[in-house]
Design goal:
With 293 residues, the protein is mainly beta. The protein has one helix spanning 195-198, and strands at residues 9-11, 18-20, 33-35, 40-42, 57-59, 81-83, 90-91, 105-107, 112-116, 130-132, 137-140, 154-156, 161-165, 178-180, 185-187, 207-209, 217-218, 232-234, 240-242, 256-258, 263-266, 280-282, 287-288.
């Protein structure tokens, strides 16, 4: 790539470019936005990207990029959106990536990244709004420090190997709208005050999706305190025990309720008829009995 020092925007997305990203990429010293997604690019992300001090957005999604995430990305003081989705990246997430005060969106879905999520040492992402970490090989617990990301709106950790209890501290994310933890090995904590109860503090929550996890919890009566914006609950095949609480009829905004393939018992509460917006209801493969209300 020849020297183009005055270039502010590079948009080459959705073409059929192949080959690798040029190693002298860092010479585009004034570039602010780079769109390279949807091509056939191969090779690794050049470490010289850390020289682009004005970079705000970097999108190299939907390519065939291999190697690891450059460890010096944290040096980019203005980086706001980082999209590496649908590639073949390996290795762990650089610890310092979460020390970037300008970061708003990190999209890493559908790679082969592994290891535990970064520890809470020095973690400070006050502007972080969306984390797309699904379809990788991340293991270990969900870090409780995520509750410090007060602006988080979307959190997707689905299809990994995460384990341990889902932290109650997620309930501190007052702007959270979408929580997806499907297909992991996550557990709950017994008793009424499990993580589901804590999510009643998320007043903008719209979608709660925790499919195929060994939660081994009951649905709390406090479910009636969930957000009025909640429209989707997917708790398929997640070892939900006990009865369906009568208070479920309070979730007036629900359009989809999926509780199939669990260990639910007892009757279907008649209050479920109060869900006037409900379009889909799946309760199959449980231990429910009695009359259908």
């Amino acid at each position: 790539m020849n020297y183009c020092g005055e270039l502010l925007l590079l948009s080459l997305s959705s073409n059929q470019f192949d080959g690798s990203v040029p190693q002298n990429f860092g010479r585009l010293e004034n570039v602010e936005k780079v769109y390279l997604g949807g091509n056939n690019l191969i090779g690794s992300i050049p470490p010289t990207i850390s020289n682009l001090s004005r970079l705000i957005l970097f999108d190299i999604s939907h390519n065939n990029i291999t190697g690891s995430i450059p460890s010096d990305l944290w040096r980019l003081p203005n980086l706001s959106i980082l999209n590496f989705e649908h590639n073949y990246l390996t290795g762990s997430i650089p610890q310092n990536l979460f020390n970037m005060s300008s970061l708003q969106v990190v999209a890493l879905t559908n790679n082969s990244l592994s290891g535990n999520l970064p520890s809470d040492s020095g973690f400070s992402c006050p502007t972080l709004e969306s984390l797309y970490f699904g379809s990788n090989k991340f293991s270990g617990p969900i870090p409780s420090y995520l509750s410090n990301c007060s602006r988080l709106v979307l959190l997707d950790f689905s299809s990994n190997i995460l384990s341990g209890p889902i932290p109650k501290s997620l309930g501190h994310l007052k702007y959270l709208q979408n929580l997806s933890l499907n297909n992991n090995k996550l557990t709950g904590e017994p008793g009424e005050l499990n993580f589901l109860s804590s999510l009643s503090n998320c007043r903008f929550l719209k979608t709660l999706s925790i499919v195929n996890n060994p939660l081994d919890i009951t649905l709390p009566d406090s479910i009636e305190n969930f957000s009025t914006t909640l429209n989707t609950i997917y708790l398929l095949q997640s070892k939900i025990n006990g009865h369906i609480p009568i208070s479920i009829g309070s979730l007036k905004g629900l359009t989809f309720l999926v509780l199939a393939a669990n260990n639910l018992s007892g009757n279907i509460p008649s209050t479920i008829g109060g869900l006037e917006r409900l379009q889909r209801l799946f309760l199959g493969d449980n231990k429910l009995e009695g009359f259908i209300p």
